[in-house]
Amino acid sequence: MALPLTDRDSVPLQVRDLSLSFAPGVPVLDGVSLDVEPGSTLALLGPSGCGKTTLLRVIAGLERPDAGTVRVGERVLTGPGVDVPPEQRHVGMVFQDWALFGHLDVARNVGFGLPRAERRASPRIDRSLELVGMTEFASRQPDTLSGGQQQRVALARAIAPEPSVLLLDEPFSNLDTSMRVRVRSELHALLGELGITSVFVTHDQDEAFVLGATVAVMSGGRVVQCGTPEDLYERPVDAWVAAFVGDADFVPGSARGDRVETALGVLPLARRRTGAVRVLVRPEHLEVVSTADAVTAGGPAGMSGRVVLVEYVGRSTTAHVDVGDVVLGVCTTGRPTVEPGDRVVVRHRGGAVQALDPEIGETS
């Protein structure tokens, strides 16, 4: 395995109270604060237009905020009276479209950000290409490469100057599905090997959860929730986050302490609560049994309904069951065991559930 580009210690990235408006009264960033631990990767997850890329551009020095600070290690890059130029920030960036230069070969693309004396030939070019597995393509032109290979060249160019922070703006968006999965795994391994503090922008939950040691969910220019992938999935702060990071349904319930009464039965609560709530249920926490089997076997209570749709994707099957007020998705491994039109009972088979406010969706 190739050695990292540099022996320098990793540094933290700190963002505090960043605000930016491109038009009066229309904030693109609204008091954003984040911390990225040295050598770790933070994934910025959110819908289009939520401010993810703008935040990345502020960190890179390509946009100047109206207020707030950006600090890398002990060095302030953006703040009151401070605006370090992009080329002096020691921040590498991989753009969404990769932004390779068609008139330069691979090696010269990788060396573009180096001092002039190193741009044609340098150990840093050689090591960067080795790290991304592109050494044999050094003399090729970008337009002769596949999408995945071009993405690797863009990454090699970003890491060649040995940046303190690496920023990646949806680098897989131009790849097909199978290539995305493969390159994502390669990048995950490479970021761990390099130990560079990184920020990765995506609107794809799977990418965020795979690559991010920490994930910050953004909406409307704000960070709505920041935590580990498990935190976000198991303990979302509200119904919007719950639905954005995975398939989610909600059933009404009445909470008393550490239990909640629902049509799915009396379920344990992750946090104590009293009063009316909405209970978050994930498809993999549910099961379906035929109405006849449910009566014969007894066991936990459930919600009766009719299967309206069955989706089989090989490794799993999702049955959509109309139980009256809501259509619940039920995900099981393997082949379908029910068909559209079947009468079934949906039962909860997971552990403690999350109670959300019945009106505004806030976690109690």
Characterization of the model:
- This protein is α+β, with helices and mostly antiparallel strands.
- It contains nine helices and 19 strands.
- The strands form four sheets. The chain has a six-stranded mixed beta sheet, sandwiched between helices. It has a five-stranded antiparallel beta sheet with strand order 2-1-4-5-6, covered by helices on one side.
- Strand 8, helix 5 and strand 9 form a beta-alpha-beta unit.
- Helix 3 crosses helix 4.
- Can you write the helix and strand succession as a string? EEEHEEEEHHHEHEHEEHHEEEHEEEEE
Stretches where pLDDT is under 50 for at least 5 consecutive residues are 360-364
Number of strands: 19
Major β-sheet annotation: 6 strands, mixed
What is the SS-derived class?
alpha+beta
Task: Please give the radius of gyration in angstroms.
Answer: 24 Å
Counting DSSP H or I runs of 4 or more residues, the number of helices is 9
Distance between the termini: 48 Å
Q: What portion of residues is helical?
A: 10-25%
Q: What amount of the residues lies in strands?
A: 35-45%
| Overall 3D form | globular
Average pLDDT, all residues: 90
Spatial strand sequence of the major β-sheet:
7-8-9-3-10-11
Topology:
Layout: E1 13-23, E2 26-36, E3 41-45, H1 52-60, E4 67-72, E5 75-79, E6 82-83, E7 91-94, H2 106-110, H3 123-131, H4 147-159, E8 165-169, H5 177-194, E9 197-202, H6 205-211, E10 214-219, E11 222-227, H7 229-234, H8 239-244, E12 249-262, E13 265-281, E14 286-290, H9 291-297, E15 303-312, E16 316-322, E17 327-333, E18 343-348, E19 354-356
Parallel strand pairs: 3-9, 3-10, 7-8, 8-9
Antiparallel strand pairs: 1-2, 1-4, 4-5, 5-6, 10-11, 12-13, 13-19, 14-18, 15-16, 15-18, 16-17
Helix pairs in contact: 3-4
